[in-house]
Write a structure and sequence with these properties.
Largest sheet: 2 strands, antiparallel
Number of helices: 20
Helix content: 55-70%
Distance between the termini: 26 Å
Strand content: under 5%
Radius of gyration: 31 Å
Strand order of the largest sheet: 1-2
Order of helices and strands: HHHHHHHEEHHHHEHHHEHHHHHH
Amino acid sequence: MSNKDGYLSPLSTRYASEEMQSVFSENFKFRTWRRLWIALAKAEKEMGLDITDEQIAEMEKYKDDINFSVAEAREKVVRHDVMSHVYAYGVQCPKAEPIIHLGATSCYVGDNTDVIIMKTAMEIVAKKLVKVIKNLTDFAVKYKETPTLAYTHLQPAQLTTVGKRATLWINELIADVENLEFQASRLKLLGSKGTTGTQASFLELFEGNSEKVKFVEDFIAKEMGFKSCVEVSGQTYSRKIDAYVLSVLSGIAQSAYKFSNDLRILQSFEEIEEPFEKNQIGSSAMPYKRNPMRSERISALSRYVIAQSVNPAYTAGTQWFERTLDDSANKRLSVSESFLAVDAILNVLINVTGGLVVYEKVIEKRVMNKLPFMATENIMMESVKRGGNRQELHEIIRVHSHESARKVKMEGGENDLIERLSNDERIPLNKEEIISSLNPKKYIGRSVEQVEEFIKGTVMPVLERYDLTNVSSEVKL
């Protein structure tokens, strides 16, 4: 069957980067298995088992040269992936064949590799996530003083600034980075626990010497770049680890989803747009359209990741005693596809946040159209200072505001609230005094200071932890 006749995952063909796909590739997986078998053999040799340097050298020679056809043919016979690859490795390493996988169970390579894969993938995700934060930080600094409408219930409420709004997106992404770093820091290898987690097979190998058994496990952890292995387990590491990791990915997707929805609305307002390439087509039917297709892709993939995070939670809860195998097929899909989808989300986010287009004149026009309503509280307070009755003034301004809004909405007229208020003798302010209150920057509160303080105190310490020099952000389509 050719590629055109069989199913191909769009995560591979359309979305995820080659970098992330390589982490979940067959080569990465089976090469890691062989590294684990070499680490096990070295540790057992150190503890006195009859394993020679020649055997280990033979294993090293073929550690990256996976003879897939031999393994695949063998698996059709024995129906066991690990033993098929033990066999294939042994074909290449006849001298080492007797000691490959000595004392281990399938989860020695399977589970330890899964942890290594997740840790490697999390490192890629972290760098890309921080790159998004860097892009949005630059954006926040640039537009920290640009007033814009702020919304509650998607209704204009008060003013904020374009940069201050960006800090809301950054704040959630910072929380995701911190959560990701925490979960990555607590990842441990399964180690060499044996069939039910008691290390009985290794205790037998070392004639009851527990210290040698513990040495082997510590040696393996260090060889594979980990500080330690889990203290206790059944045959597998706790499947709650997968649930924790995918919960982090779900959090990233939630933040991306929020950003993409905000941007889609802003693009509808014609205030801020995602990058639109010179030859890009927005609609097959309407040539003038500039659809926010990349933000829509972020939204779509984010929903997928959020939904996938439920899978490992169910899997963790249905593990029977020391092990059951109903986790395997689910893990193969949910863990890998969640990482691939998050990678795709971040690739697009890097692209979008690095090229946001801001239409300041449109933003200003929309601000000034609503500002008279938002200025009414200041007008009321100043009128009270000049001897007015707060309750009476509130009612006067309320009536004028609603009448002006009716004219705008029902008649398509201009906002004439300022004229109404300046012509009402009950308002102790003249037109010039009222107009002077219509400076948008009077209504942005501490937005500028908040941006500066947040970036200095919260964002910069995160950015300084990462080297973003070679962060790839491949967007295929």
